[in-house]
Design a protein that fits this description.
This protein is an alpha/beta fold. It is about 45% helix and about 20% strand. It binds riboflavin (RBF).
Length: about 160
């Protein structure tokens, strides 16, 4: 959790699987669009950089982070052949309890969809106290969590394909 301890977007120490065989969906929440757009771009560029074909990336917007689990469920039910779904969102703490409800629903929802379908569903959702913390993790001083979500998708798709 302590992201100040290391650059989490530095993958020089790990082996990243070739993405050429994989078909991957990226679902992006439209809330906090500046941040989710930067996360999306990081994820997309990282998939391309590691060999995923552009026509094998399915990009889909949803209104907010709360919609990410149902979108992942719909995609994995209706879209045969997906190797992973990357879910991107940004929930920023406000004055009401919405933050807690949304974060918990998304984390539990994505876990359940992943287990139900035996497919990687990646939690690329920032849950921050303020906008600056989110900017720092969307291409700022703490890297880009979209890049990290894409690497996780490749590693887990490779894991599922080789097991
Ligand atoms: N969606 C987000 O992705 N990030 C947020 O920070 C966020 N904050 C919200 C705050 C309130 C008070 C409400 C009502 C919704 C918020 N949403 C947010 C939208 C939510 O994920 C969902 O799209 C809507 O609640 C409709 O189901």
């Amino acid at each position: 959790m302590a992201s100040h301890l290391k650059n989490l977007s530095d993958f020089s120490h790990t082996t990243i699987p070739n993405g050429e065989p994989f078909k991957i969906a990226i679902v992006v929440a439209e809330w906090n669009a500046t941040i989710t757009g930067a996360l999306y771009q990081g994820a997309f560029d990282t998939l391309i950089k590691h060999g995923v074909k552009e026509d094998q990336i399915l990009s889909m917007p949803v209104p907010g982070s709360f919609e990410l689990p149902s979108a992942a469920e719909i995609l994995l039910t209706k879209h045969v052949g997906l190797d992973a779904v990357i879910c991107i969102g940004c929930v920023i703490q406000g004055d009401t309890k919405h933050f807690d409800f949304i974060c918990e629903a998304v984390a539990n929802g994505l876990t359940n969809v992943s287990i139900k379908h035996s497919k990687p569903v990646i939690f690329g959702v920032l849950t921050t106290n303020d906008e600056q913390q989110a900017l720092d993790r969307a291409g700022g001083k703490h890297g880009n969590k979209g890049d990290e979500a894409a690497i996780t998708a490749l590693k887990m798709a490779h894991f599922a394909a080789t097991i």
